[in-house]
User: Fold this.
Amino acid sequence: MVPMLHGPTEVGRIAQALAEAGEERYYIQRFSPRSTLDPRYSGLRPFTDDDIEQMLKSARSFLKGTLVRGAPAGIDQE
Assistant:
């Protein structure tokens, strides 16, 4: 998820669309500004753990099988 492009609302909408399509899993992953394809993104800061938790909560309201790839300690995976 790229800051300025994604947030809890967008992640929730994606999860809702996936759930409506019959999907059971949705994986979200924190943005890393290293080696970006678009150099404009190299200066963006990754989301905080609180941001990730908020997006996870938003997504799980539609799709319970949402997980965070590379989740930091303390973020509930199940």
User: Anything to note?
Assistant: The radius of gyration is 13 Å. The chain has a mean pLDDT of 88.
